[in-house]
Amino acid sequence: MRYCSRSIRQSATAAMVTVAGMLVPAGAALHGQTPLHPLDQLSAREHWAIYDALQSSGKLDSTFRLLYEGLKEPVKSEVLAWRPGQPLKREALVHLTQGKFGYEAVVDITGKNVVSWTQLPGKQYMTSGPESRAADALAMKDPRVKEALRKRGVTDFTHVGCSPANNGYFDLPEERNARVLHLSCGDDRNRISGYGESFDGLVIVVDLTNEKVLRVLDVGGARSGLPDGHSPEEIGATRAPVNPVEMVQPKGATYTLNGHEVEWQNWKFHFRMDMRRGLVVSRVRYVDGGKERSVMYQGSLSELFVPYMDAADPWNYQGYFDLGTYPFAFGGIASSLEPGVECPRYATYFHSYVVTEKGAPRERQRTACLFERNTGDVAWRHTRAGGGVNEARPRTDLVLRMYMNAGNYDYLFDWVLQQDGSITVNLGATGMDQVKAASGTPKDNDYGRIIANKLVGVNHSHFFSFRLDMDVDGTQNSLLVDKLQTTTLPKDNPRRSIWTVNTLTAQTEKDGMRMSAMNAPEVWRIVNPAVMNPFGWPVGYEIEGHGAMSLMSPDDYMRKRAGFVDHTLWTTPYAPAELYASGDYPTNSVAGDGLTRWTSANRAIANTDVVTWLTLGFHHVPRPEDWPVMPVAWHSFAIKPVGFFGRSPSIDLPR
User: Fold this and answer.
1) Which segments of 73-191 are extended strands (E)?
2) Does the pLDDT at position 4 exceed 80?
3) For the chain, how big is the Rg over CA atoms in Å?
4) Whole-number Å distance between alpha carbons of 589 and 585
5) pLDDT tens digit sequence for 6-43
């Protein structure tokens, strides 16, 4: 992919980085134009080619609205066989609505023709701004809604709006075969930052398919008042600043770029941005003794599920599938990064494109950044006997970063490549808690806590599914489960017990469904049974991650729709169409789609091309310190070599 650079703010020292054979200033923002790699993100010209193909197909009418356009990847074997300079196969997957139905299309970008056109099942397409506006218009025309607002003292409706508060779905009779939304209302009057005033206890159930209000639920007149915001006026006086601390690279970056392909410290990989998945990291390899060895074919976020824990309508419907439902509403999940704040000034920034509802590409600036980081940590250290000689090596990481805005929440995602052959994925959660009006009774604490004046922060959980297509020294891999177990020793041994490792090979998908508890720990290794390390056991990489378990009961319909939360690790055979843990279309989906449905076949997974799915979860009981904007809360998992190398890969770091 070719790039031109546009200067942005930089540090006083002008660092340089090699990009596609050219030196450009570090801190520059790079624009993709012509794809150079089969997995490159869609360019602006390609988005227009998609639009031309759809228009010339005769399939569109004046009501069409584009919801998603992304690369339809070639099958893995084609990508692995491809070499630079060879022709590229470029297809796009398109989601759109037309009339009252959703559709999926596959477009041949090069030939500018529509390969397939399929109506989606039910009403499961992604949500959009126009849909929200249509629901608001229906609600505000209903005299019952106006009367409920007047009861709450509202006389000026100019800044009052009602919007879908959730995408919960329980397969109730009124919800089947219709696009049913539960709306709540608020007033933006006097709002400066944060949210406007909310009117809890008022719920409007709208059937968009048949364009009618099904019912209006009015169970009280609670008003939240105007929530605290985070504008300078509301924050007040700020503390004295710390003395400047700044990372610089006087001699420039040590990574090289060829389009979206990166080389750094024995690592090689490709990445792109996708409207729905965000950062997609592919073809991850490690150069070991001059030999290029495969580690991971592809890793990305697959789904994000956030269920709220309030039993009352509309809160009992609050269960968000952010990746499958809202990418268009967010304008693509990746938001623009601010140099010097969200990434170092010296980082390299990358732009990407999203589409409007009518298919026009729009540039989203600085949706990813790449930089080296040395925080003063050591890669390894040892003090020789007597304390006379210290051996230590500084640690430097390569960080690929994206920020995601998901309504009230913001998430930071770092893919961190380390000099010891490990990859760490860091996830930071920040933004604003979802709140409701306090009633002034003890019931305020039933499903959350009062965290600000007249506001209750509602309890909730966050569950992330990461799809990790590991290819350890090739595509034929197996999952080994190392179970750490207590072994009782014979009575003649003064030691009564030790723990030992019992290793089993997962043969089927059922074997590949794993949970690791503190009292029953497991280590999960993806190995290549055909490649032995110098010590006679198979080369491998360990997936180290232990997220929170779901506390919803197994028969809870919302949990069944997000079945991936049932296990920390899932393992499936590679299937190019299986990309999303809760299925392609989780909006208003029935229970059991995605991983639950695929693994019901209990397919064989031993010594084959396997994909692992890691669930990273945490529960959030809100606190006043989270308001009005919560400090970043960090969670992470790691992909670490286990027998992949014959010794520590970082032992050769210079002093």
Assistant:
1) 91-98, 101-108, 113-119, 160-164, 180-187
2) no
3) 26
4) 7
5) 222 233 333 445 444 444 555 666 555 689 999 999 99
Could you tell me the sign of the dihedral formed by the alpha carbons of 118, 122, 128, 132, in that order?
positive
d(CA 286, CA 492): 49
How many CB atoms are located within 10 Å of the residue 631 CB? 10
Residue 231 has pLDDT above 80, yes or no: no
User: Hey, which residues are catalytic here?
Assistant: 322, 409
Rounded Cα distance between 295 and 274, Å, is 22
Question: How high is the pLDDT of residue 20?
Answer: 45
Q: Percentage of the chain with pLDDT > 90?
A: 72
pTM: 0.93
**Paired sense of beta strands 348-355 and 29-30, if any:** parallel
Per residue in 109-165, pLDDT (tens digit) is 999 999 999 998 778 899 988 889 999 999 999 999 999 999 989 999 999 999 886
* H or E element that contains 81: helix 76-81
Q: What's the rounded Cα separation, in Å, for the pair 204 and 474?
A: 54
- Tell me which H or E stretch contains 542: strand 538-544
Give the H/E segment covering residue 133. Answer: helix 129-141
Q: What are phi and psi of 565, to 5 degrees?
A: -75, -10
Residue 416, sorted as left (phi over 0), alpha (psi -120 to 50) or beta, turns out to be: beta
CA 286, distance to chain mean position in Å, is 25
Long-range pairs of 394-398 with CB within 8 A, sequence gap ≥ 24? 394/653, 395/419, 395/650, 396/265, 396/372, 397/372, 397/373, 398/255, 398/262, 398/264, 398/265, 398/267, 398/370, 398/371, 398/372, 398/373
